[in-house]
Amino acid sequence: MSKNDRYVVKHGSGWAVKAGNAHRASGVYDTQGQAERAAKEIVRKLGGGEVRIQGRMSKNDRYVVKHGSDWAVKADNAQRASGLYDTQRAAEQAAKEIVRNLGGGEVHIQGRHGQFRDSDTVGGGKTATFVSSYLDRKGSVVVDRVADTFGLSKQQLALTVGLKSETLYREKRATAQKTQARMREMLEIVGRVSVWAGGKDQAMAWYRAEPLPAFGGRTAEFLVKDGKAAAVRDYLDHVALGGFA
User: Fold this and answer.
1) With bands split at pLDDT 50, 70 and 90, how would you rate the model's confidence at 203?
2) Strand 6-11 relative to strand 116-123, pairing
């Protein structure tokens, strides 16, 4: 994290611009757009850097934050923590392991007085390699490759991620943002599970059929179809950190 970077964060009913290690905001604005423009102007005058917007952080990023007398690991905008730890150091190590398993991202660390004192970039692990094996040079999921690997028809694959049965037969729809996002969500989850399930086939079987007690017996497939892939990722964070299975 550069000292020039600025964060646009919710502040009461408005939006604040803050440096990563600042106790006070540089300014408070009525709208997110106003705060974002102000942050970009500050960064420009400082010689360049990044403007990070709350709610737009990478879904892989994790935050180490104070939680009572403990330290919590949380995803951006998550209502519950992935885990609680006695020390900041233990929480930081857990957060880095989660981010590594998700394919890489940033771990943001809150200081003891509330400011974010640091952030570390973490490279991807086995999950990143798994997902990337199904991408083309432009970073798009190759539908045929996924279908062939798991022995599914395009119709079955589409239904597995909550899309209309004919979606993957049409190139324009197969490369659409929503389609690609759903495919990536499924691959990320299957990739993470394959590490401890014994392989990709076992992981897909888990994804499609394993009832999850934490979600009333619903499967990961059901949750992804329902737009709740983030909840499955949070669940897998708990499992990775020794929580409920």
Assistant:
1) very high
2) unpaired
- Which residue, among 114, 145, 151, has the nearest Cα to 22 in the 3D structure? 114
The domain ranges of the chain are: 6-53, 62-123, 126-240
H helices present in the chain, as ranges: 32-46, 88-102, 126-132, 143-150, 154-160, 171-174, 177-197, 200-209, 220-225, 229-240
pLDDT in tens, 19-41: 876 778 889 998 888 988 999 89
Tokens of 119: 């952030």
Q: How far is CA 195 from the centre of its chain?
A: 18
| Rounded Cα gap, residues 18 and 26, in angstroms | 6
Task: Mark 64-86 as b/e (b = at least 16 C-beta within 10 Å).
Answer: bbeeeeebbbbbbebeebbbbbe
Cα 151–143–140 angle (5° rounding)?
145
Rounded CA-CA distance 237/95 in Å is 9
Side-chain half-sphere exposure of 101, counting CA atoms within 13 A: 23
